[in-house]
Amino acid sequence: MKLRTLTLGLLSASTLAFAAHAESITIATVNNGDMVRMQTLTDDFTAKNPDIQLQWVTLEENVLRERVTTDIATKGGQYDVMTIGTYEVPIWAKQSWLLPLDKLGDDYDIKDIIPAIAGGLSVDGTLYAAPFYGESSFVMYRKDLMEKAGLTMPDAPTWDFIKQAADKMTDRANGVNGVCLRGKAGWGENMAFLTAMSNSFGARWFDENWKPQFDQPEWKNTLQFYVDLMKANGPEGASSNGFNENLALFQQGKCGMWIDATVAASFVSDPKNSTVADKVGYALAPDNGLGKRGNWLWAWSLAIPAGTQKADAAQKFVSWATSKAYAELVASKEGWANVPPGTRSSLYANPEYQKAAPFAKMTLDSINAADPTHPTVKPVPYVGVQFVAIPEFQGLGTTVGQLFSAALAGQTSVDDALKQAQEAATATMTEGGYIQ
Description:
By secondary structure, the chain is of the alpha/beta class. The protein contains 19 helices and eleven strands. Strands 2-1-3-11-6 form a five-stranded mixed sheet. A four-stranded mixed sheet has the order 8-9-7-10, with helices on both faces. A two-stranded antiparallel sheet has the order 4-5. The longest helix has 20 residues, at 2-21.
């Protein structure tokens, strides 16, 4: 008995000693479905890396952006891995705020990353963030309601068709909104949608000399069309709805159409979570015949702040979470349709994925259709499809997003919102030295 007790004591001491020497890394991420799923699968990582413990900070999109930006700019050191997007990566890398990802392992296969996605996460050919999932945006729609309306969704619809369809599909008595679109204020929430939409209306944030353009007719046409469409056919309280809120509405059968991130396709077509899973069709984001569609280009990616003291452990985690092996792990647990999309060419060449994901081709076509270097109809001095790749955009985009959300809520007019947006943008660009 004493021997057994002694042995157990030694084992406990050994276990405690191991735990004390295990390295703990803190990961900041967004509360989107793919990231939540990742956290449920990390036993695979810890089994392969028993000396690394994972701590999670999971936040709503706007809050995540604010927290990680503040932390990295102030060298706070709270996080060892950050979930950031295509907007932040090149700006932060040029500030030397991010570590280059040069220790992802021999079998990681960086060349397999879709070129359009890798390009937005690299500086001078060096990858500074690894894409967890990549996306564009497209139309998700109820095939049954479209048929009931006597319409056929084109593969490449116009905004006029979207309005026509929304008018016919709206059925307030049965809780069906013809269209659900983002209204929640934020540069990555309503302004991601509205900036991409504005490109198809011929609008731009700035002209070639960085002069703000919210006083031009193209922006008036964009915002007026959006507000009118949503008031006639959108859900109640739309000014509070972002990606997750609209996803829930669509899954509950309360949206005839939803124009949003391609990554949503696996969730709206999942019969475990979506009441309309077998009724969903897909189409390219709308246009106005001007040569630009209203779709964006984005990747939620994992990056390592330069101030971390645990860079090697952090790179091991980033490599695991964005690898081909992780895709296979998700497929084995959840099915191929639920693999994080939009990052690797090999996924779209995989017959099993093509069979399981009816949205695969439309997703890849949408990603490849976006052109961050020529995002608008008229020339611009910036890159970025649904954002402007300058440091000032994060604050300015949120300010403009609040103004446009207020217009949607009926708290201000479209004209007043645009006037205030022009004033805010002019002040920001003057202070930044872009214009005199």
